[in-house]
Amino acid sequence: MEAPIAEQAATRIAAPIAGGGTVALVVAAGRGERFGGAKPKQYADLAGQPLLRHSLAALSRHPAIDRTRAVIDPNDQAFYETASAGLDLLPPVSGGASRQASVRLGLESLEDLKPEEVLIHDGARPFVPADLIDRILTALGTAPGAIAALPLADTVKREAAGSIAGRVAGTVDRDRLWRAQTPQGFRYAEILAAHRAAHMAAPAEMGLTDDAAVAEQAGLAVRLVEGDPANLKVTTPADLERAARWLASAEEIRGGSGFDVHRFGPGDRVRLCGVDVPHDFALAGHSDADVGLHALVDAILGALAASDIGEHFPPSDPQWRGADSALFAAHARDLVAARGGRIVNVDVTLICERPKIGPHRPAMTARLAALLGIAAERVSVKATTTERLGFTGRGEGIAAQATATLALPRVHDLPGDV
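Given the sequence above, the corresponding structure tokens read:
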């Protein structure tokens, strides 16, 4: 259970920090028994994406966080690959039999990086605000630990035990009581030592439910930082429904369109939507002339109101000569993530007499889904002809048009107000 999971493709792994800096550790190895369902709750669908992806994206795009790593159950590798597709993350590591064990294993996996600070976050908290992360990191300047927490506002009752369980046994004074959230931030060396000491004292783990408790046991000072009611934790299906309602009302939906044309030139294949298709000619262009991807990138940029592909990748720039258009698609995808948004669906129509697109449509759909980090069910690739009219009808080239629908965040009240 403690063996590390195999590394993902090198294109997904950024170079390690050379020491210092901040790493976010996202704990997602639990089974979520209270949630139920066919798969662990952290992989349940939330607005078209796995719940865990929202948490990973929020942390990995924060400018003060240098690297982000997930701790997962190795049996969930396939689920994790889908949840993390396209995000700039360190490879995941395997968790343990308890949350406490999983965090310790995650911390130990960071020893080669030697971060100065670490943020430990529950993968089932999808809406961690950037300013909350800022507050925790600021507090670490004056204490070895800092946690997000909210003061209790409700009256707290203690339940009776034994044969009268279910009755009120008393009222608890809520003064100075706080409800802990994550992220919880610590100076890395000190929280690693605290976890190791706790493990040595009780190898079977003591059931400490958060990392502040581990720090407290080691005598580390932990500061309370104002949390955020929006930073909700998904524990039950009702929580997931609440999160979906809030997310839907906290987003604005935008659409964009794109169009591109490339003429035929010498060659024996064309690249369309990232797939090489055998043909009597190739498409001519400054890059790889992938007319489908070019139209799609313009559609995404249009929905972002971020100009067009030519401004981001000028044809006058020699570095893009012969470039794989997958780079352009990844750039557009990352711009969406940087805005805190998500790609809802894309639709590409290829316009040509030949080659025939139908046999290659599944491969194109899969390639676009992988490039954009979305489910294949959210990708449409179609083809049509112009009934032998115009330049495409004469077999002089291929045209493509595309549309993209994005969900982007907007200012909204707290989730409890939905």
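Residues 188-201 form the longest helix (14 residues). Try to locate this feature in the token string yourself.
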